[in-house]
TrEMBL record:
Alphabetically ordered keywords of this record: Heme, Iron, Metal-binding
The keyword Heme is annotated on this UniProt entry: yes
Pfam families linked to this entry: Cytochrome_CBB3
Identification of the protein by name: C-type cytochrome, methanol metabolism-related
InterPro entries (UniProt xref): C-typ_cyt_methanol_metab-rel, Cyt_c-like_dom, Cyt_c-like_dom_sf
A Gene Ontology molecular function term of the record: metal ion binding
């Protein structure tokens, strides 16, 4: 952990580490999905507030499957952490790992969702939605405007849901 030498305190006690924009900025898009330069799925929000399809879909899936424990809008609850921040802090691979396999720290249990298609088929959607929230690019609540769902996203969804 970085130390603030002047005060001898951990930096985190003074301020959050700034989020590197490269971790969420859109580098390229493919059939209605957006990616960073590291090929990690990310959100896209236009100046007029229109969100990409995955972000909108992620909002709905999150509130169907996760918010009972993690609170509305990824804000956390007394029971489970604010995962809008986890999506930023953990990175994509570890985020996916926890959701697929779950985690049990002895006191509280995050269930594994690896067998649940309503989560697995929408994992990137949930991730990019939370990333938009955790980086303060998306306000709380249901996004008012969204991009159309692309044919490829529709086909992938049908194939995944069976
Ligand atoms: C039954 C309650 C419950 C549900 C439903 C739930 N979680 Fe969790 N989740 C938890 C708890 C409790 C923890 C903290 C576990 C720990 O302390 O290790 C957690 C931890 C996590 C973490 C790790 C947080 C971190 O910063 O380390 C992620 C990521 C996560 N959950 C994602 C999700 C997603 C995505 C969903 C919906 C698909 C979901 N959770 C649904 C209870 C839940």
């Amino acid at each position: 952990m970085a130390l603030c030498l002047a005060a001898g305190l951990p930096m985190a006690a003074l301020a959050e580490d700034p989020i590197d924009p490269k971790s969420y900025e859109v580098s390229y898009d493919e059939d209605g999905r957006y990616f960073t330069e590291d090929d990690v799925p990310t959100f896209k929000i236009a100046d007029d507030g229109t969100v990409d399809w995955l972000t909108f879909s992620g909002f709905r899936r999150y509130h169907a499957e996760c918010h009972v424990c993690h609170g509305p809008d990824g804000e956390g609850s007394t029971y489970a952490p604010a995962i809008k921040n986890s999506s930023v802090d953990l990175g994509y691979d570890e985020f996916v790992n926890v959701v697929v396999n779950g985690r049990n720290n002895g006191n509280s249990v995050m269930p594994g969702f690896g067998e649940n298609r309503n989560v697995m088929c929408y994992l990137d959607d949930i991730y990019v939605y939370l990333k938009a929230r955790g980086t303060d690019n998306l306000a709380r609540g249901r996004p008012a405007k969204k991009e159309a769902k692309s044919d490829v996203i529709r086909e992938d969804e049908d194939a995944c849901m069976g």
